[in-house]
Write a structure and sequence with these properties.
6 strands; 4 helices; three-stranded parallel β-sheet; 149 residues
């Protein structure tokens, strides 16, 4: 047997029905759509979501409540437990060092240090925001919190 000998099984493949190709074909004139009416027309029929003339579901449902504040400021959260694992004693925590260690994607991202976890190392923290609990833990460990430039 060769590849060029392969054929589909007899009767498994049918030719498509060629509509509107003369009356002798059996599907000429109206091309199998019947006479007149919505479904016989080009583009006829009901669109998706049509509910028999009743108000469509998408229009019956209420709109979403509230609004999105365009002036919202997002901070990348960094916990003290993460700083404890990544930084050595006496190091400075800022956007550049956080980016270098893979905590944030870009050094210009806004960062907020949160107080989850314990801190035993002296760190100088220069980020955009620090929570009150994080600030207390950093200063208790002998470190200091400075405002970012």
């Amino acid at each position: 047997m060769q590849l060029n000998d392969l054929r589909p099984a007899a009767g498994s493949r049918k030719n498509r029905k060629r509509l509107g190709r003369g009356n002798a074909s059996g599907t000429g004139t109206t091309a199998g759509r019947g006479t007149k009416g919505q479904l016989s027309r080009s583009g006829g029929g009901k669109g998706p979501g049509f509910e028999g003339g009743q108000m469509v579901l998408a229009m019956r449902l209420p709109k979403l409540p509230g609004f999105t504040n365009p002036n919202r400021v997002e901070y990348a959260p960094v916990n003290l437990s993460r700083l404890e694992a990544l930084y050595a004693d006496g190091e400075t925590v800022d956007g550049a060092s956080l980016c270098e260690k893979g905590v944030i994607k870009h050094e210009y991202e806004l960062v907020k240090v949160l107080g989850d976890g314990e801190l035993t190392k002296k760190l100088t923290v220069k980020v955009d925001k620090v929570s009150a609990s994080a600030k207390a833990k950093i200063e208790a460990a002998g470190g200091k919190v400075e405002q970012a430039c």
